[in-house]
Amino acid sequence: MEFHVMVGHLFRRTHQVATAVFFEEMNRQGVDITPFQYAALSAIQLNPGADQASVAAWTACDRATIGGVLDRLVEKGYVSRKVSEKDRRARVLHLTESGENVLTEAQKATLRTQKILTEGMSDAETETLTRLLLHVLENDPR
Fold it and tell me: What span, in angstroms and rounded, lies between the C-alpha atoms of 107 and 28?
């Protein structure tokens, strides 16, 4: 089988396209965040007061990487990190007002990204693609 039609190669190329479209749409919206930062902001919005380990799990990101992502979001003023009242060793995370605002703008750009990536597909095809990608992820042996 030729490499350019192998599933792994197609995943790599699809990731490249998706990332490029994501950045183009974020730039168009005037938002300066990465896909990982978007995922972290979204996870914190859905789970205010979550700790870093939980955000890492929800975003499928290792703890070391999410630490750097969160550091940058705190530096940008999008996330606050405070010592947990329940466990002094843990840090709880909340979106700041600025974080809420940037996430609202990023969500608009992300919706456009999804439309661009599935352009020319029917709703049924998009649902099938989503289901198949989820199936691949469910089979992750790690």
Answer: 13
